[in-house]
C-alpha cells in the first residue's frame, strides 16, 4: 500500500472534491503510478485529520471519474485514466487512437494496467449520439420541462418508451403503467427490495452473487442468505429448502448471464423456481441487465408476472453513464415501488430519461445494442482463442468469463500473479455470500479494456500466469 498523502494547500471547494482533485493531479504527474494501492479510508482520514466519511466520498468521486477502482477485500487501486474515461470498443467506427468528441482518446496506453474487473462497456456510437440529442433537446424549446420534478414513477412518455424497449430487447410484454423509472439497475434493485423487505428480513440469492446485491444488503440491513448453484444456476431443491427453513421475503437472482459465472438458466428451471417461490409466497426480484444478449432466454417475469419485480437498465447495453433503469411491477406492488422511489430518490432524472427515450424511439439504442452484441461476441471468441479451453466457463456471448483455476493455483496467488503482469481481475471471494466458501476462480471482464488489442494483451498475460505453476506455490514456501 502506498504512503500517499495529498497536498491540499491552496485548493478550494468541498473537502471531498479537493481530495479527489489532488488525487487526479498526482496520477497525471505520475506521482501515483497506475496500479498503486491507495491508503485505506481510515488511514487517509487520520493522516489528513478529516472524517472517514469525507475520504469515502472523495474515493467515490475519484472512482466516478474513472481514476481508481476498488476490489472487495483487497483495497482501492489507481487505474489508467485514459482507459477508464471512455473504454469504447468499436474499432469499426473509431481506431484505438482516434480522438473522440471533447478530445478524449479511446483505449488504454501500451504500458498501463489492464483493468478487467468491471463490466462497464462504453460506446463510441453513444458519444456522438449524445451530442446530437442534447443539441436537439436544446433546440426543441422544451428544456425547462426537464429541470423540474417529475412524477415519482417517471414521465408518461418515458415509461412508454421503457415499455417499448423491454418488449423489443428483453421480451417482456408489459404496459407503461407497469414500468417505473429508476436511476440504473443498482437503484432499481434497491427500490425493489425496499418495496418488499425491511431491515432484518431474509433475502435469498445465489451463493455467488452480484457484488451490488451484497453491498446493498449490508447497507440496508437485509440478511442475505446464499443458496447452492450449479452449472444451470440456482438449484431448485436448495431454494425449496431455504424457503422452508428461513421464510425469506424475497429471492434476488440473475438468471440470464449470471454474475459472476455467466451461466444462463434453462427455461425448465425458471419455471421450477417460479413455482417454488409461488408456493412459499416469496417475491422474485429478477435482475435482467444482460437479457438483451440472449434473445431466446425468456425472463422469469414472463412466467410469473404477478410475483416478480423485474429490474433492468441500459447500463450494459446502451450507456452506463445515463443511469436509466426500469422496474416492472405487478399491480398489487406498484404503489409500494412508487413509495420506495419517492423515499430513495424522489424521481429519476428526467434529462437522462429523455435522452434514453429519444434513442429508443429513433432506433439509436438498437444500433448501439447491435454493436455491443457484436463486440461482446468478438471478445468472447478472442478470450477462448487465448485461454485454455478447460478453464473458461460461461455463455459464449457474455461480457465476462468465469475462469476456473487449475491446480495448484489458489485465487489469491493467481490474482497477485496477474497483477504483477499488469492485469487486474476479480476473485470469487468478492461474490461469495456470507461465509460461503468461494471456489478458486476469478471473473474476467472483457468489455472494460478500451480496445480489442488491450483486451488481448490482458488475456495473454492471464494465459501466461496460468502457465506459471512456480508462482502458484509461493504462498506455501
TrEMBL record:
Presence of keyword Glycosyltransferase: no
UniProt-listed Gene3D superfamilies: Aspartate Aminotransferase, domain 1 (3.90.1150.10), Type I PLP-dependent aspartate aminotransferase-like (Major domain) (3.40.640.10), Winged helix-like DNA-binding domain superfamily/Winged helix DNA-binding domain (1.10.10.10)
InterPro entries reported in the protein's UniProt record: Aminotransferase_I/II_large (IPR004839), HTH_trans_reg/aminotransferase (IPR051446), PyrdxlP-dep_Trfase (IPR015424), PyrdxlP-dep_Trfase_major (IPR015421), PyrdxlP-dep_Trfase_small (IPR015422), Tscrpt_reg_HTH_GntR (IPR000524), WH-like_DNA-bd_sf (IPR036388), WH_DNA-bd_sf (IPR036390)
Domain HTH gntR-type: 13-81
Recorded superkingdom: Bacteria
GO molecular function, one term: DNA-binding transcription factor activity
Pfam families reported in the protein's UniProt record: Aminotran_1_2, GntR
SUPFAM superfamilies associated with the record: PLP-dependent transferases, Winged helix' DNA-binding domain
UniProt key word Transcription regulation: yes
Keywords, in A-Z order: Aminotransferase, DNA-binding, Pyridoxal phosphate, Transcription, Transcription regulation, Transferase
Family as reported in the entry's similarity comment: In the C-terminal section; belongs to the class-I pyridoxal-phosphate-dependent aminotransferase family.
PANTHER family per record: HTH-TYPE TRANSCRIPTIONAL REGULATORY PROTEIN GABR
The protein's name: PLP-dependent aminotransferase family protein
Organism: Azospirillum cavernae
Taxonomic lineage: Bacteria, Pseudomonadati, Pseudomonadota, Alphaproteobacteria, Rhodospirillales
Amino acid at each position: 500500500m502506498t504512503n500517499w498523502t495529498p497536498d491540499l494547500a491552496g485548493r478550494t471547494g468541498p473537502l471531498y472534491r479537493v481530495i479527489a482533485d489532488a488525487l487526479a493531479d498526482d496520477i497525471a504527474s505520475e506521482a501515483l503510478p497506475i496500479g498503486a494501492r491507495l491508503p485505506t479510508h481510515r488511514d487517509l482520514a487520520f493522516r489528513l485529520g478529516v472524517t472517514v466519511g469525507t475520504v469515502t466520498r472523495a474515493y467515490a468521486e475519484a472512482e466516478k471519474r474513472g481514476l481508481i477502482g476498488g476490489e472487495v477485500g483487497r483495497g482501492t487501486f489507481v487505474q489508467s485514466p485514459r482507459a477508464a474515461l471512455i473504454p469504447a470498443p468499436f474499432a469499426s467506427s473509431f481506431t484505438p487512437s482516434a480522438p473522440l468528441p471533447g478530445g478524449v482518446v479511446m483505449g488504454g496506453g501500451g504500458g498501463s494496467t489492464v483493468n478487467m474487473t468491471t463490466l462497464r462497456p462504453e460506446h463510441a456510437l453513444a458519444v456522438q449520439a449524445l451530442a446530437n440529442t442534447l443539441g436537439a433537446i436544446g433546440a426543441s424549446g422544451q428544456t425547462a420541462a426537464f429541470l423540474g420534478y417529475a412524477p415519482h414513477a417517471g414521465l408518461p412518455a418515458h415509461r412508454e418508451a421503457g415499455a417499448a424497449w423491454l418488449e423489443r430487447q428483453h421480451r417482456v410484454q408489459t404496459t407503461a403503467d407497469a414500468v417505473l423509472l429508476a436511476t440504473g439497475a443498482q437503484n432499481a434493485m434497491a427500490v425493489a427490495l425496499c418495496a418488499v423487505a425491511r431491515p432484518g428480513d431474509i433475502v435469498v440469492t445465489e451463493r455467488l452473487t452480484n457484488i451490488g446485491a451484497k453491498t446493498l444488503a449490508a447497507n440496508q440491513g437485509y440478511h442475505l442468505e446464499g443458496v447452492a448453484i450449479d452449472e444451470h444456476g440456482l438449484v431448485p431443491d436448495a431454494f425449496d429448502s431455504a424457503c422452508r427453513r428461513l421464510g425469506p421475503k424475497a429471492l434476488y437472482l440473475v438468471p440470464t448471464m449470471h454474475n459472476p459465472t455467466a451461466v444462463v438458466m434453462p427455461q425448465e428451471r425458471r419455471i421450477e423456481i417460479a413455482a417454488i417461490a409461488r408456493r412459499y409466497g416469496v417475491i422474485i426480484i429478477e435482475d435482467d441487465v444482460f437479457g438483451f444478449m440472449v434473445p431466446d432466454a425468456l425472463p422469469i417475469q414472463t412466467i410469473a408476472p404477478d410475483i416478480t419485480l423485474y429490474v433492468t437498465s441500459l447500463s450494459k447495453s446502451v450507456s452506463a453513464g445515463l443511469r436509466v433503469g426500469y422496474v416492472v411491477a405487478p399491480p398489487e406492488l406498484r404503489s409500494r415501488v412508487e413509495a420506495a422511489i419517492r423515499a430513495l430518490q424522489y424521481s429519476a432524472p428526467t434529462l437522462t430519461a429523455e435522452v434514453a427515450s429519444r434513442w429508443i424511439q429513433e432506433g439509436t439504442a438498437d444500433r448501439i445494442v447491435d454493436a455491443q452484441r457484436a463486440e461482446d461476441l468478438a471478445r468472447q471468441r478472442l478470450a477462448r482463442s487465448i485461454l485454455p479451453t478447460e478453464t473458461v466457463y460461461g455463455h459464449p456471448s457474455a461480457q465476462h468469463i468465469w475462469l476456473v483455476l487449475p491446480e495448484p493455483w489458489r485465487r489469491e496467488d493467481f490474482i497477485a500473479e496477474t497483477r504483477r503482469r499488469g492485469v487486474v481481475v476479480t476473485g470469487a471471494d468478492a461474490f461469495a455470500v456470507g461465509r460461503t466458501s468461494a471456489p478458486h476462480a476469478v471473473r474476467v471482464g472483457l468489455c472494460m479494456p478500451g480496445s480489442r488489442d488491450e483486451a488481448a494483451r490482458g488475456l495473454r498475460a492471464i494465459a501466461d500466469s496460468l502457465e506459471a505453476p512456480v508462482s502458484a506455490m509461493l504462498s506455501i514456501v
